[in-house]
Amino acid sequence: MVRGDIEGMRVSYISCGAWHTAAVTSTGKLFTFGDGAFGALGHGDRSSTSLPREVHALRGLRTVRASCGVWHTAAVVEMPPELSGEFSSGKLVTWGDGEKWQLGHGDKEPRLVPSLVALSDTTNFSQVACGYSITVALTDTGKVYFMGSDDRGNLGSSGCSKTPTCVKGNIKNSRIEEIACGSYHIAVRSSDAKIYTWGKGANGQLGHGDNEDRNIPTLVEALKNKQAMRVVCGSNFTAAICLHDWALGADHLNCSGCRNPFTFIRKRHNCYNCGLAFCKLCSSKKSLKAALAPKKNKPCRVCDDCFSKLSWKKESRSALESAKNSREVIHLNGNELPDKDIINRASFPKLARLPSFDSFRSRNCNHDRGVFKSQCYPSFLLGNSTRKSTSGLRMVSRGSSPPSRKSSPVSSFTRNSIHTDLANPELLLDDSKHSVESLTQEISLLRTQVEDLTAKSQVLEAKLERTSKRWKEAMAAASEEAEKNKASKEIIRSLTAQLNQGRGKGPEQSTLPRN
């Protein structure tokens, strides 16, 4: 529990920066605490505080929102009528570091206390978000303003914005309802539940499927039909909360599988994978891999189609694992393949049941020059374990594309693919080259790891040697102290004995006659 002046108050909004925190209470008071460098706390100085302190410059005003950047802070406050006339809500105040014009006052001077950003009296703000050196604010009419610069073009221009500037581009005709700001990127949510992002994209935080920067608001296509409800930004990532597209309208009345209407007897059940409504007969199976399962370790009801898809994924994964375990080492020259007895047929029951399997299994693949001669085996039996192939049956497969979801790997083996591969012996040489290259890369990687481990072991040995030396020194010192203690005890014992002897002679001497 956070103590101090804020204790016992109801907090309605909170914002965390890299080095400081701001909290808004339900009564409109603003408290800040943390590192006060550049005056980011707004207390009129650069001192830090470990307990929440109220920002006295905003007393008499009602703080609605606050946002912490790295070294600056911004807040939306409601002005009383006697100070702002008719328009009394949604004014923007900023303070802290202004090196990149992120305070919006037209200069680089820092502000130690909250300062009002000069803008039209008719412009009222409802939200504000701060990045590393940028500030973004949202008006009550759904327009986005930005100020600051990061020399990356994040703010919609190659330069910077010394004062609040309205963002145009793809959101010019949209009403924005929520804004969020990372270190160097911005995300907004429109009234039609769409997400737009722009700025730095080096870590994929823009959500456009690449690492490219964007200098104008760009629609996130992956969330276009997801009904986004919230959007937030971390320093270099973005997250959005979306509504799941459940079955609506007439789909609630009929089973999505058999299309029979739901009745008192034919009850409706939802599939925990696709979310559609089904009757009991069409959704009688359960799976542990349902996407909408409330508990991951508990099987949930799914429809027949989803059950088939989830089962196929499981079988494909197990087939690939068994193929990987049974795959034998191929000689680097590419001229030898493992003998057919080496391969465990028990791991391929589906392949053994094919009518054409026994026919092509016993064939010999003869090279035109008579160099290559061996048994023909499926590609997933002989290929590299780190690569998957979907091109049919090959002698040694090195394809890098993932297996197709539409067809089983077994069903893709045809006689045409067999003859095609046999007619192209160059593929085998290419596969051998790829095998050599991959093995070389693995060897170099292992060497690097060995060198790193060797260096670490040397460092640990040196530390161990120093520790052993200190331990020996400590033991020697302890032995020396023990000898000293032993000698001291002997001296004390001797002195005690002499003292006892002196006390024994005293009475005898006192009985002698006096002269």
What report would you give on this structure?
- Residues 249-311 form the FYVE-type domain.
- It holds the Pfam family FYVE.
- RCC repeats lie at residues 28-79, 90-141, 142-192, 193-244.
- Keywords: Metal-binding, Repeat, Zinc, Zinc-finger.
- Residues 391-416, 480-515 are annotated as: Disordered.
- The chain is an alpha+beta fold.
- Among the domains are: 11-242, Regulator of chromosome condensation 1/beta-lactamase-inhibitor protein II (Methylamine Dehydrogenase, Chain H), CATH 2.130.10; 251-308, Zinc/RING finger domain, C3HC4 (zinc finger) (Herpes Virus-1, 2-Layer Sandwich), CATH 3.30.40.10.
- 26% of the residues lie in helices and 24% in strands.
- It is built from seven helices and 24 strands.
- It has helices spanning 81-84, 304-326, 349-352, 357-361, 379-382, 415-422, 426-510, and strands spanning 11-16, 20-25, 30-34, 49-54, 62-68, 72-78, 91-96, 111-116, 125-130, 134-139, 144-148, 161-166, 176-181, 185-190, 195-199, 214-219, 228-233, 238-242, 269-270, 277-278, 285-287, 300-302, 364-366, 373-375.
- The strands form eight sheets. It has a four-stranded antiparallel β-sheet, with no helix packed on it. The protein has a four-stranded antiparallel β-sheet with strand order 5-6-7-8, with no helix packed on it.
- Strand 13 and strand 14 (185-190) form a beta hairpin.
- The longest helix has 85 residues, at 426-510.
- Residues 328-423 and 508-515 have low confidence and may be disordered.
